[in-house]
Design brief:
Distance between the termini: 52 Å
Strand order of the largest sheet: 1-4
Strand content: 15-25%
Number of strands: 4
Largest sheet: 2 strands, antiparallel
Structural class: alpha+beta
Shape: globular
Length: 84
């Protein structure tokens, strides 16, 4: 029997890097205001929010498109969109 072709190992899967065409703004985070609610992580359509376990750890600007959803849903105003 041949190997199944539809199985993709996470180790071998390509990681798309698409942040090169951002909208002109990018998120900037004030970690002193962040309460780790992770709404930014839930709403980010590009998986640009990086976690350290269950805590906010930063942003992956290589995949962030500047959609502003993270800033819109942050209840603490910890995320501000800044010029690229």
């Amino acid at each position: 029997m041949s190997e199944l072709s539809w199985i993709v190992s996470p180790v071998d899967a390509p990681v798309p890097r698409t942040g090169g065409w951002r909208t002109g703004v990018k998120p900037s985070v004030d970690l002193t205001r962040c309460i780790d609610c992770l709404l930014c992580w839930v709403y980010c359509p590009d998986s640009a929010v990086v976690l350290d376990g269950t805590a906010f750890a930063g942003l992956d600007y290589d995949v962030c498109k500047g959609c502003e959803l993270c800033a819109a849903v942050c209840p603490q105003g910890a995320i501000e969109m800044v010029a690229e």
